[in-house]
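can u pls check wat happens w/ magnesium ion
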Amino acid sequence: MLELRNVDTYYGNIQALKGISIDVNEGEIVTLIGANGAGKSTTLMTVCGVTPPRSGEVYFMGTPIHQMPTEKIVALGLVQVPEGRRIFPTMSVLENLEMGTFLRRDKNDIQKDIDYVFDLFPILAQRRSQMGGTLSGGEQQMLAISRALMARPRLLLLDEPSLGLAPLIIKQIFEIIKKINQEQKTTVFLVEQNANQALKLADRGYVMENGHITLTDTAENLLDNEQVKSAYLGL
Amino acid sequence: MEYFLELSSSGLVRGSIYALIALGYTMVYGIIQLINFAHGEIYMIGAFVALIVSGVLTIYGFSGVSILILAALIAAIYAAAYGYTLEKIAYRPLRNAPRLSPLISAIGMSLFLQNYVLLAQTPDFLRFPALIPDFEFMEPIAHIMGSAELVILVTSAISMVGLTVLIKYTRIGKAMRATQQDMVMARLVGVNVDNVISVTFIIGSVLAAIGGVLVGSYIGQINFYIGFMAGVKAFTAAVLGGIGNVPGAVLGALVLGLTEAYAAGYISSAYEDVFAFGVLVLILILRPSGLLGKAVKQKV
Ligand SMILES: Nc1ncnc2c1ncn2[C@@H]1O[C@H](COP(=O)(O)OP(=O)(O)OP(=O)(O)O)[C@@H](O)[C@H]1O
Ligand SMILES: [Mg+2]
């Protein structure tokens, strides 16, 4: 469904992605783990056309997207929940959700989808009129995921959804990612530093170091891998 | 008391003209953090286009109000084209350059447009026809507020309400707010940020052109340089209200216009600029981010 082929991405003269190749198949949950500065967020931004690759190719459902503007990529159903949530601070919860539907034509089903995300995260329903910027970190993460769901993604890209959250909330969010994958048949590409939980949730994983993909395997095997254990699982 | 009302009315008129121009500064700044120094020139070009159009229409036998409306319409279209082009050629290529570069480009465009009109037209003041008719119903209060002043106030008010509704409720307005709050995230929900920036320049230019037409008709003369001082004042108003903040620009403009009118009326017109900038300094000392501006959040 998503293919990256020898992708190189630069920030000025600094090369952040060094010839990476990644595949995500329809229906899967695939995780990308790696240390700080490895290039995980850059990978997602490259897929979305925010930091387009200098060389290499990216395909989504067979369509080359590496030269497409971001809004066209989003229109194909590739929706990202970025690092740091990026909630619109002076828009209400409802307005933030509405921004998620920006490219949708089927305006009739929007209310149904709002009900759906309020059902997933009842706290958001209570906060519907509150400004996004005043929500707690956990609530903002729930809103960020909900906003992405409002776009009806085919492939949901999540960048460290567990960052800075309490263990209980992390558990809840991971359960909901699983639920979205199973109920909505949404494919998920999950960037995480929380390798243990990410690998338990995912079908397959990639390990990234310094802009390179150094390892890829089923999540089960990665959990047993000595290298992964010592570097990312703290075992 | 009557003198006070008279000054207040003239202050509000000035203020609403400043507001029409200040909105362009503040909207552009809000979205791309650029001070568009050439914005005052758009206002000036609007006034020139209106002058030329009204000359032509007069020859063809059109009368006052219809000339005013047509002239304003054509001036707005011209200004929109100028604003759109300005962004496209002078600012867009510098979108990722250091912040000083587009600023210098803006100053360059301002000088260029001034001199272009100077060469294409004339350095002299040109007489601008009084296009706004005298209404009979304004007769009793004509010594406090004239018909032209009423038209300026009403037109400005309608423009500002229109802008507020556009920003709050329309699709493009929401895209503008999203882009202003987080440009990357706006792109990630599918907003075409380039279009939003173009539309922002177009809206700002249209408002400035409306201001230019109203002022030309009110003051009765224009030249290539009117955009400079009006631009400085409107920019001051935008900063006063909190740059980037739309209601702030209107409030700042009204405060500025009234300050100038009272200073000119009660002290001397020689001091109006002193007071105008004095108020700016005072407010920036007390509230560094302007009347309605939010304190800049520093990320640590
Ligand atoms: N805007 C930028 N300009 C210059 N360099 C950047 C920029 N953004 C990221 N980088 C660099 O690119 C590299 C990869 O960064 P990236 O944000 O993709 O890492 P990451 O794996 O997401 O890290 P983290 O886990 O800390 O979020 C880093 O060395 C970083 O310093
Ligand atoms: Mg990151």
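Residues A 40-41, 83, 159 surround magnesium ion (ligand 2) (CB under 6 Å).
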